[in-house]
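Thread title: Can someone regenerate the structure for this chain?

I was given the following input by a collaborator and told the matching structure tokens would be attached. They weren't. Posting the sequence so someone can regenerate them.
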Amino acid sequence: MTLYTVTSEIFTENKNSYIKCKNDNVISSFIFKYPSYMIKPECLNGLTRDNDDDINIDRQQEGKLLIEHHISTELQYVGLQVWRGALLLADYILSNPDLFRDKVVLELGAGVGLTSIVASFLAKEVICTDIDVKGILKLIHRNFMRNKAYIKSKVDIKGLDFLNLKWPTFYKKIIDEPAIILAADVIYDETVTKGFVQTLTELLNSNVQKVVYITLEKRYVFTTANMETTAPMYEEFLDLVKVKQFNWHVEYIKIDFPQYFKYNRLEQMVLIKIKNKLSK
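Best answer:
Regenerated them for you:
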């Protein structure tokens, strides 16, 4: 049987500098512009400001995340790559510091950990989770260590499988604590998508207000059966979410917030906010 591999567009479109590791992974440099609140006062000398007294974006300082990842993988291991959704969600976090500052944040399907690392710039605690295959949890740990100069929060890296919701009591308590849940580009496979929605259902079945931020990219395919172009996984996700609308409040967030990372922010990209409706 032929095994098909996929490669993230991030690797080809940005031509990020990278070095090869001994384990056949690479370490890429992801450059980002500092939001004004991250620039230390002593670094402001020499920066120009506009009429609103904001620092001119073109003169902002830049930071660099070093992220270990795979270049290509089989479909079931795409979490070992970096995808646009992770960068879009990272941009949203940096654009809205007050939503994330001093919060406990849980990321589902964190992949190589880029979005969790950015959340740790602001959060009180970040619980970074993914299914423990192909050494991904150890890889996430290495990425946090590489970028420890930016980390401001407590960090907990844990295994979590969307297809196994039989969590021990102590474990359920840990992952039930966060008020904010993040997920980037986990909508790509029918089985995984169903498991992801079931996981959200478990987490949002709470008397505590929780907010979920989900980024994804509508990936269109042409079907000869219906002679039309569709985004099947996105539509599958929406169908599953519609069943939950009685208990969930779903909102689409415009993606016109500032862009700090370098990637193509396509119109097919989506940011969805979900809140659980608390019983009165």
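The chain has a mean pLDDT of 88.
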